[in-house]
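I would love for you to help me understand the pair of lines that follows before we discuss the fold together.
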Amino acid sequence: MLINMIIMRSNKNYIGTCFALFILLLTLGSCSKMNDLHDKYLKDGEQVYVGQPDSAKVMSGNKRALIRYWTSDPKAKKILLFWNLKKDSLLLDIPTKSRLEPVDVIVGNLEENNYAFELVTTNSELKNRSIPLPLNIKVYGDLFQASLHNRKVKSSSYSTVTKGLTINWHGAVEKSVAVEMQYVDLNNRSVDTLISPSEKSSILGSFKSGLSYRTIFLPEKGAIDSFYTEKVEVPIVLP
């Protein structure tokens, strides 16, 4: 009985000792890995990041896009702009004007498509960079232009008393923002006027002849370019 107790106590001591050795080896291994990382950190030098632009937005256009950004980090001296899976890029100096003012960048010669841009600020030597700031936008072009249609005239009437021409319209066209009208008045002057796309009837005062119009479109809110249909001549017979 006494012998068994001694053996059991010895086994417990042995297991405890092995467990303590295991913990010690694990701790030494972790410390070694941490030291390796620390040595690599010191060897490569401290990584200094440049701050991202404080904010940025992108606005669509006709085969182009406008990127507007704000940056306040004094370390940011240049900005890199990537798109097309980083196959295309621009490197630009950040203006030295007030850091509170926005900076506009126009990216031209774009195909009509969806684009994912990335903005990266960097120091003068291009060594230290910011984390990329993503921006997504759809750029418009010939396909959007080909889809546009003029607003249609329903009827017209002329008043011999007021000398005004009334144009009655069919419903507004989607994404239209105005209708541009042109005619000659009684003083033989060319008159240009814009009317709202929701206006149901338009009165052109002192009308004489030569009415034409076109519809103006904005592909989306905030777009930097308008699109226009071809001008249409409206035959008017005066009494």
